[in-house]
Please model this.
Amino acid sequence: MAETEEKRKQKKNKRPKKKWFGYGNFYCPFCGARRNQGEEKICPKCGKNYSLKISLRGIPKQGGGIGFSPYANHKSVMRYRKQEKKAFWIWAPVISLIIASIILFELRDKIYDWQSFLGAALVPVGGPLVLIWLFWFWWYGMNYKKYKNWDGVVTRKEIKEYDETKRDGNGNKYQEYSTFYTLYFKDDRGKEHTLVERDMPQRFDFFEEGERVRYHGKYTNYYEKYDKSGLDRIPCQGCGAALDPRQNYCADCGCIVLKV
Ligand SMILES: [Zn+2]
Ligand SMILES: [Zn+2]
Model:
């Protein structure tokens, strides 16, 4: 009896649950191995407790070191990218269908005779629309986050308040206020880059004027600090979670921590 139970457990442990959507403690924060949800507390691969609180007890706090991390092209990052792409191909058709339904719903009053409308409009209008849509899918899937990497310096930080007069559903005017946080960079080839964040100054606050930065645009759209020595948290290059520099991998998305 006990043996079969043991065997069943082993079988179950062999196949990690597949992750399709979302995030949650799926990976060991120390060795990056896929973890079996809710089944054990100790990683079978590296022997450490998954809990940072327990495993980091007694280990003094440390920063992420000085210099750019050599782990930007690590296989864990490639795996993350692959999963992200997969999620895109699952969600994109769903979102397209929703958008198409909204358009049809908005047009409902203009369509009095469905049959003749469909017959008359589907071929000349629908055909090219489908082609454009498919092309957009293909293009977006191919180029998604495929920007060039560069090394550079933060040259300037700028905060701009912006207010816009808008109208609500009843036609009444109202003001919408937003704040734009802009980081200006100059890369080592002299080219300028900007990063604009609206109402969310996380990355803006993270960088100081004059500091050295590496942009990992090709894979993760991530800005890495050259000097990470004073950080007690390093943002995950995949999902953006705040990671302890003493851990090696993000427990949520499995990406390696970009430290030195
Ligand atoms: Zn482990
Ligand atoms: Zn992550």
Summary: Residues 236, 238-239, 241, 250, 252-253, 255 surround zinc ion (ligand 2) (CB under 6 Å). The first strand starts at residue 150 and ends at 167. The CA atoms of residues 30 and 248 lie 5 Å apart. The mean pLDDT is 83.
